[in-house]
Amino acid sequence: MAQLNGRLDKVVPMDVYTVEKNQITARVDALEAAREKDADKVTNTRRWMLGTVLTVIIALLPYLTAMVKGAGA
Fold first, then answer.
1. Residues 1-30: what's their mean pLDDT?
2. What's the average model confidence in pLDDT over 9-13?
3. Which of 9, 17, 38, 65 is spaced 20 to 30 Å from 57 by Cα?
4. Chain segment 22-73, per-residue pLDDT in tens
C-alpha cells in the first residue's frame, strides 16, 4: 500500500485529491439538503391531502345521514 501511495504522490499532487474531496463533500451535502427538502414536501402534501379528504367527508356526513334517515321513513 505504501508503494502505491508513493507512486500516486509522484503522478498527481496531493492538492488535486484535496480539491476533489472537497467538491465531492459539497455535492453530497447539497444532495442531502435536497433530499430533506423533498421529504418535507412529500410529508406536507400527504397532510394536506388527508386534511382535505377528511374535511369533505365530515362536511358531507350530516347530509348523507339525513338522506339515509329520509329514505328509511
1. 80
2. 67
3. 38
4. 999 999 999 999 999 999 999 999 999 999 999 999 999 988 888 888 866 5
Task: Give dist(CA 15, CA 26) in Å, integer.
Answer: 17
- How far is it, in rounded angstroms, from Cα 51 to Cα 62? 18
State the residue for C-alpha cell 382535505. 52
Place of cell 509522484: 10
C-alpha cell at 50: 388527508
Burial 23-35 (b: 16+ CB within 10 A, else e): eeeeeeeeeeeee
